[in-house]
Amino acid sequence: MTQYAIATDLNRCVGCLACSVACKEINSVAVGNFWNKTLRIGPNPKEEGGNWPDVDLYFMTISCQHCADPECVKVCPTEASTKKPDGTVQIDKAKCIGCQFCVMSCPYGVRYLNAEERVVEKCTLCEQKIASGATGDDALPQCVTQCGGMARWFGDLDKGLEGFKGARGETMGEFCEPWTDGDVYTLPDAGNHPSYRYVLRRMKWQS
Fold first, then answer.
1. Which phi and psi angles does 187 have, rounded to 5°?
2. 8 A C-beta contact, residue 199 and residue 12
C-alpha cells in the first residue's frame, strides 16, 4: 500500500508562513481561504505555576490530513470525494454539488465552499506534482519545496518517516535531530486515522 503524507518537525518550524503563501500561489487559492494554515501554539508554561521565559512555544501547520479512513468520503452523496491508491483524498469538481456534507464531517475544518464555483476545495497534496512521475523538487508538494526551515517533509507513511524527502534532497532521518516514537503525534483521531505526522521534542504536545 501507499499512504502519501507530510511530516512536520515542529522543533524546526519558525512560523514564517512560507508554506501557506506557496500553497496559495501554486493552487490559486482565493483571498480569505487557506489550504494550509499556520497556527501558533503557546506560549504555555512548561510546568504548573511556571512563568516566562520558562514556556513552550511552537508553530503547527494544519491542512487536509489525507486520512486513512476519511469521513468526508463516506458522507459524499455523489462520490466527488474519493480516496486514491496513493493514499490522498481528492475532490472531483465535476461531481461536487456543493452540499458541504464533507465540510461538516471533517474534524479539522480544512474544507470550504468556493463561493464562486460552488464546489468544495481543500489541499490536494499538490497531486499535479506528485502524480507526474517527476523527480526532485518537481515531485514534492509546494509547501515542502518552499520550507526554508527544513521543517516539512514528504513521503510514504507506510515506509516510515525516516525516508521522507525534504527540499534539498536529504531524508528526514539523515537531516533532522533524532526522535523517538513518543515524539511523534497526530491531530486528534475521530476514527478517521489522520495520516500527517508531527514531531515535537522536549515540549508538551497541545492538540
1. -65, 160
2. no
Beta bridge partners of 41: 58
Strand order in the sheet with 152-156: 152-156, 4-9, 197-199, 184-185
**Domains in the chain with CATH codes:** 4-67+123-199 (3.30.70.20)
What does the alpha-carbon distance between residue 175 and residue 148 come to, in Å, rounded to a whole number? 14
pTM above 0.85, yes or no: yes
Query: CB under 8 Å to 162, separation ≥6 — which residues?
Result: 171, 172, 173
Residue linked to cell 468520503: 73
Question: Is the Cβ–Cβ distance between 87 and 68 less than 8 Å?
Answer: yes
Residue of 78, 127, 81 lying closest to 105 (CA atoms): 81
Task: State the CB neighbour count (10 A cutoff) for residue 4.
Answer: 20
Rounded CA-CA distance 29/206 in Å is: 28
Task: Convert the pLDDT of each residue in 79-135 to its tens digit.
Answer: 999 999 999 999 999 999 999 999 999 999 999 999 999 999 999 999 888 776 555
In the chain, DSSP assigns E strands to 4-9, 36-45, 55-63, 81-83, 89-91, 112-114, 119-121, 152-156, 184-185, 197-199
Q: Which triple of cell numbers denotes residue 15?
A: 512560523
